[in-house]
Amino acid sequence: MSSPERGWSAAHVGDYRKRVFHERDVLTRALGEARAWQQRVLHDLLDFNAGTEFGREHGFGRIRTLDEYRRAVPVHGYDGLEPWIERMAAGERNVLTADDPVVYFTSSGSTGAHKKVPVTPRFMRTSFFPFFYAAWASMVEHHPDVVGADAVLNLKQDPLPVPKLTGDGRPHLGASQVDFGAAFGEPLSAEPGTSARWAALPVEVAADDHLEKAYLRLRLAVGADLRCVIGINPAAVAALPYQLTLWWERIVREVRDGTVGGRAVADPDPARAAELEALARRFSPVRPAHVWPNLRVVFCWTGGVASLYLPRLREDYGIGVDVLPAPVAASEGPTAVTLDRHPRAGSLVVTASVYEFVPADLPIGAGAETLQAHELEPGGEYQVVYSHVGGMYRYAGGDVVRVVDGLGGVARVEYAGRATPSDAVGERLRESHVVGALSTALAESGLEVRNASCRVVGATPRYEFALAPYTPWSGDETTRIGERLDAALRARSAGYDSARARGRLAGPELTLLDADAFQRDWHRRVAEGTRPAQVKDKLFRQDQADWERLVGAREGED
Fold this sequence. Notes:
Elements: H1 10-30, H2 34-48, H3 53-57, H4 66-72, H5 78-89, E1 103-105, E2 117-119, H6 121-134, H7 137-142, E3 152-154, E4 164-165, E5 171-173, H8 180-184, H9 210-221, E6 228-232, H10 234-246, H11 248-257, H12 270-282, H13 288-291, E7 297-300, H14 306-317, E8 322-325, E9 328-330, E10 333-337, E11 346-348, E12 354-359, E13 381-387, E14 395-407, E15 410-418, H15 431-445, E16 449-457, E17 462-469, H16 475-492, H17 494-501, E18 509-512, H18 517-527, H19 544-552
Helix pairs in contact: 1-6, 9-11, 10-14, 11-12, 15-16, 16-17
């Protein structure tokens, strides 16, 4: 095993292991008392926040059951809470929560909106930290060297020297940019990789120059014996092999010269530069598995669009690499965390939030009828509505989960996509319909893609798919994929099938892109100032300029 990570003493590593295993054990035991825990969480959020303005207006002090809570508080999205949140951010107290927010998380949702999610000490203590620590338990247990010295490249880490502030002076930033130790007194909360030598960059770089920061970390990491890459966002994991190729000559030159970003701040390493040059003579292109032959773990979301490309992407990192699923969670709160070695699904965090669900094909609104966790059916897809002590009351965040099976009598779910459908002529296609249909069509054809997007075009509307094949497809193969995709969409979506049968919707059209098209598009979006953690796979792309940027790019452009 490697020595403890820089800044982590052996005692700290031991304490960290104990904490993550303890929290996993607590959540696992809680599954056996899931309904009781859901009642406790409800009572806690009601009792703690009964004296707030929101609590008084909605009668928290009189509510004791979930049915009473459902009648008192409508289901809503961010818009329904935004006026209350803005008052808090302006300095009013006791509005949504009894304790004051310490920070406000920005949303990393697919809408790109910069929401302000209040983050309170009680929410962090009772809802966030238990699931946060438990999420790392499987990785730490089965790959103990991931916390070794300079062994983890954490792609989501992005500390800000000067964060944006709300009107009352609270930091407003992404969850990956918060120092939980400083903000909430949690000295064990630093993730693996956040104390590696590339975590604090040795040269100055503009806070919004995210591509240069990515380059600098990669430049430093090529000199290490990496064991783990933490991406959370799988699009960032998919971008790293492309970045190695894109920046290869610069990386090798700087390793040889001992420069970082053009400045002489490291020791020259001609031996490592020679190793890298030898790799380039043997392999074209050079992949992470070549640079870091001891790489063992990739940690990221595994559902949604990523399920199409992760199986083959895994090979870029190494044949024996474990791709471990990151939790199903959003800035607004946790939903599920993997408590064993399941490759995709996690158990509901029954100690964190009160969970309600609406079947994914039904509209969701203030009076939506909801199901409880024990009423979910295996294979069913549901929109998640959650409530927790931090002020998210009956909050519909827009995520859809699929029930895979159960663990300890509680549903185990995976992320299935966003809830907002594509609906040109009543077809109401959801992301999970499209991803599932693509998966079926590709499997039936023996073909693979690096990524996919689609849009609706034409006087008689049709879906145009932009696909980046893993290997070139013949004309006949492309035709067959289109036919099988159409059939799979009709089988999965009654609305699509009806629209096709009545002639309101034409069959799909395929536009094939080169292998790196989606990675170039990802780089452009990051170069425009969006943090890498927020640049996610985009399945539905109805914006014309966005589409043209994706399909109009050519190899060699950057």
